[in-house]
Specification:
A 5-stranded mixed sheet has the order 2-1-3-5-4. The chain is an alpha/beta fold. Helix 1 (2-10) runs antiparallel to helix 6 and helix 3 (32-47) packs across helix 4 (56-75). Strand 4 and strand 5 form a beta hairpin. The chain has 2 domains: 2-115, no CATH class; 119-226, D-Maltodextrin-Binding Protein, domain 2, CATH 3.40.190. The protein has helices spanning 2-10, 25-28, 32-47, 56-75, 79-85, 91-115, 119-130, 140-144, 193-198; strands at residues 136-138, 152-154, 174-180, 205-212, 220-226. Helix content is 43%, strand content 11%.
Length: 244
Amino acid sequence: MLVALAALALGRARLLPASVGHIPRARALVALPVVLYAAYMVIGALARLAFIREVSPNVRLAAGLAVVATAVIYATWPRLPRAIARGTWNPSASLALAVLVSGGQLVQYVQWATGRSYENYSASVQLGRQLPPGTLVHGKLANGLSLENQIKPVFVGRGFGNYEDRKTRDDVRYILTYIAPSLGYESQAHNPVIQDVIDPYPDQRIIMTFDVAETATGHDRAVLIDKFGGRGRQEMPQSGRANH
């Protein structure tokens, strides 16, 4: 979105028609949803840099700033739209903005290139060697680690996605979840949904553990659990953290 705006300015195209400055505020309120959405898209491109590894904080921050920006636009109407319609952005300012945004993307690429890992790929391959094609596996993590094998993930969300029968799916023998940085980390909650899936099966047994890449710590671990493990099972740690 920011690159598109910069391109318009560099091409000396107007972002808004000159007539926008003559529209009464009451009439302009009809376009409030569009203005709010446009503000969210523009601000979101920059706000995401504050929480590059997390989605929810980015969405909340961008949404909050978009609401503030929209309120400012309408509170000062029509001064700001009129200034934009006059082409306040000159090519130098637009070029500087484009360089700034592109530079941020370049930094992110360098960070990825120097710190990338193949742990999730390797984990997905190992999972395919452990489970035959078509095996049903419970958990959000099963979706992410199903790309290099032929398992069938059974997603479970809070209040949606196989949530109602999460405790009674005896046809799904296996559970896949994080154990580090914490048990059920993918749920991002104090009472992760995956715990609801695990608890009804006291005979559960960890049959496989492997390294994965989720956080910047470099010490993330995932476990494959057999719900019907029987005797001699390796029970889940009470603390919800892996033992290293």
